[in-house]
């Protein structure tokens, strides 16, 4: 039996691969694990059957036999532990890769999410024009630090790992804003991630799902 993940029936990003099922798809592709997708409408995400799997009524989830997981970081970490290819063999390098995966989720992503929320949900608020520059500065500061650490390296810590999968996924959310373009080494880093065959397969799969979904979703 193949593992099953959940995803938006029709992602609000229009198939740009920004919803978090993309991170799980990418990890599954990197380790060569075939999977099935259960597509959910917004209504289905809040129904008891899905809430039993995901207490917050969100995607993605991951089911494999007796195991059911929610939280993208936990799912991707689980895949990286169970399969070869996403974590170094050396125990110390492995801990560092896990550290970077947490850094992506806990240190780099929060200001990026705040920025996305400010642009999407707060653009009509009278205080937005004062707040937005502060939020942008917080993102820029994090990018500056990350850019300085990455330097001229291809990946965060040696070979490509789950750390890069997560960090590239987090940074991709910034692509339309132009902020990433201020840091050429980060732009090139993200492009390297997008060039990976596993990323491309995952991207095509989510785009095909978007294109074949019914236009109106309940
Ligand atoms: N911490 C959880 C995790 O990492 O798994 C967060 C999961 C989450 O935010 N899921 C979102 C969701 O289910 C989809 S990915 N939202 C519906 C809800 O909460 O009711 C976040 C997302 C959504 C849309 C875009 N986009 O359109 O660009 C990008 C990212």
List keywords for this structure.
alpha+beta; four-stranded mixed beta sheet; Glutaredoxin; 9 helices; Glutathione S-transferase Yfyf (Class Pi), Chain A, domain 2
Walkthrough of the structure:
56% of the residues lie in helices and 8% in strands. A hairpin with a 2-residue loop joins β3 and β4. α1 packs antiparallel against α7, α5 (91-120) packs antiparallel against α6 and α7 (162-172) packs across α8. The protein has helices at 21-31, 42-45, 48-51, 72-82, 91-120, 128-150, 162-172, 184-195, 197-212; strands spanning 4-8, 36-40, 61-64, 67-70. The model has no long low-confidence stretch (mean pLDDT 96). It has a 4-stranded mixed β-sheet with strand order 2-1-3-4. The chain is α+β, with helices and mostly antiparallel strands and 218 residues long. S-(P-nitrobenzyl)glutathione is lined by residues 12-13, 18-20, 45, 57-59, 71-72.
Topology at a glance:
Blueprint: E1 4-8, H1 21-31, E2 36-40, H2 42-45, H3 48-51, E3 61-64, E4 67-70, H4 72-82, H5 91-120, H6 128-150, H7 162-172, H8 184-195, H9 197-212
Parallel strand pairs: 1-2
Antiparallel strand pairs: 1-3, 3-4
Helix pairs in contact: 1-4, 1-7, 1-9, 5-6, 5-7, 7-8
The structure holds S-(P-nitrobenzyl)glutathione.
């Amino acid at each position: 039996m193949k593992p099953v993940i959940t995803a938006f029936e029709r992602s609000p990003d229009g198939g740009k691969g920004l919803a978090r099922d993309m991170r799980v798809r990418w990890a599954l592709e990197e380790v060569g694990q075939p999977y099935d997708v259960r597509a959910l409408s917004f209504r289905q995400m809040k129904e008891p059957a899905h809430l039993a799997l995901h207490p917050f009524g969100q995607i993605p989830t991951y089911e494999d036999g007796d195991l059911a997981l929610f939280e993208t970081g936990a799912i991707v970490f689980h895949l990286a532990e169970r399969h070869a290819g996403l974590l170094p063999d050396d125990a110390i390098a492995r801990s560092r890769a896990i550290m970077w995966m947490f850094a992506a989720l806990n240190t780099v992503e929060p200001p990026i999410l705040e920025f996305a929320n400010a642009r999407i949900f707060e653009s009509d608020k009278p205080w937005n024009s004062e707040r937005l520059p502060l939020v942008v500065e917080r993102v820029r500061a994090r990018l500056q630090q990350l850019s300085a650490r990455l330097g001229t390296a291809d990946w965060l810590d040696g070979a490509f790992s789950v750390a890069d999968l997560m960090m590239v996924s987090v940074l991709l959310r910034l692509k339309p804003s132009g902020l990433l373009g201020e840091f050429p080494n980060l732009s090139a880093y993200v492009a390297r991630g997008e060039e990976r065959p596993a990323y491309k397969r995952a991207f095509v799969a989510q785009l095909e799902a978007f294109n074949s979904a019914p236009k109106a979703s309940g």
